[in-house]
Design goal:
By secondary structure, the chain is α/β, with parallel strands linked by helices. The chain is 52% helix and 13% strand. It contains 13 helices and 9 strands. The longest helix has 22 residues. The N terminus is likely disordered. It binds NADP nicotinamide-adenine-dinucleotide phosphate.
Length: 290
């Protein structure tokens, strides 16, 4: 697969010399994954990170677990930061930018992982050009098996994108795309793990129906999806060709495939991605997120 890459990143001199203070705004599920990934791969020393959340007990938990400065004061976190990583819910981003613009450094790089929030919106809310990079990761980032798409604003340069790439490459694969693709990517790879969990669960139920113990059935199912996915990425072959390798003429797999076709699996998955992408466009004004 040419357009993606995966590697373990150790902190580079370039990253360390560029980022003296990182403000991690909205350190929830995804934010904690990013924090843990960056610290775990020694991308940045913990004393250079300041994380914010809405509730003090959550801040106390993060401070205790990671030794990071964590609190509920966004202004304090953003002050002096050369890199601001926004991991808030989409509908909270405007309020944050409005609040932070008075203290945000003009040369700060802003990386936003919030679905639906465009780099144009970031510049508009700040009232000036912004060195913004949009990121769309997914939850497997938590175990460094993530897929993150990155898109640069017109005012971000190649070094700014490289900075974002370093962060997310420490958590899996990255791909740099045109920003117009970000809603589609949100519906595919950001929401995608949920679709896959449903498939894992359903395949496992099939095993249970045939008498397999549930735990064994789930392991067989999950490893089958992992192995099949890895084969696609490793060989770069079209999935249809790999499917044909499994499908012996008059064998059992073709019977299984016929059932999937009759049940409309393909159309259902295509529609799921399209619907999620449509929803992704609305989140910045809406009530919920990915
Ligand atoms: N989860 C995913 O799979 C995924 C994938 C790709 C992108 N994203 C994007 O990542 C973003 C966060 O998602 P999430 O699942 O991590 O949500 P989350 O767990 O709810 O995290 C949001 C965090 O923001 C904090 N917060 C709320 N208001 C704040 C404020 N005014 N100032 C500072 N912090 C504030 C919350 O603090 P408290 O904990 O104290 O309430 C919480 O920790 C969303 O925009 C989503 O689109 C998520």
């Amino acid at each position: 697969m040419k357009s993606t890459e995966t590697k373990t990143v150790r902190g580079t001199r370039d990253f360390e010399s560029r980022v003296k203070k990182l403000a991690l705004i909205g350190c929830g599920k995804l934010g904690e994954g990013l924090l843990s990934g960056m610290l775990g791969s020694q991308l940045i020393p913990v004393e250079r990170v300041e994380a914010t959340v809405a509730h003090q007990p959550r801040a106390d938990f993060l401070a205790e677990k990671y030794g990071v400065r964590a609190h509920t004061n966004n202004i304090q976190a953003v002050k002096g930061a050369d890199l601001v990583l926004i991991v808030l819910k989409p509908q909270q981003v405007k309020g944050f930018l409005h609040e932070a613009k008075k203290v945000l450094r003009k040369d700060a790089v802003i990386i936003s992982a919030a679905a639906s929030v465009t780099t144009a919106l970031i510049a508009r809310e700040l009232g000036r050009p912004a060195r913004a990079v949009r990121a769309m990761p997914n939850t497997p980032c938590l175990i460094r098996q993530g897929m993150t798409a990155l898109a640069a604003s017109p005012d971000a340069d190649a070094d700014d994108v490289a900075l974002a790439k370093e962060i997310f490459s420490s958590m899996g694969r990255t791909v740099v795309v045109d920003e117009k693709h970000m809603d589609a990517i949100t519906g595919l790879s950001a929401s995608g793990p949920a679709y896959v969990y449903m498939m894992i669960e359903s395949l496992a139920e099939g095993g249970v129906k045939l008498g397999l113990p549930r735990e064994l059935s789930t392991e067989l199912s999950a490893q089958t999806l992992l192995g099949a996915s890895s084969l696609v990425l490793h060989t770069g072959e079209h999935p249809a060709k790999l499917k044909d390798m499994v499908t012996t003429p008059a064998g059992c797999t073709i019977d299984g495939l016929l059932e999937l076709e009759e049940g409309g699996l393909r159309v259902t998955l295509i529609k799921a991605v399209v619907r999620a992408a449509q929803r992704a466009k609305q989140l910045v004004e809406g009530q919920n997120s990915v």
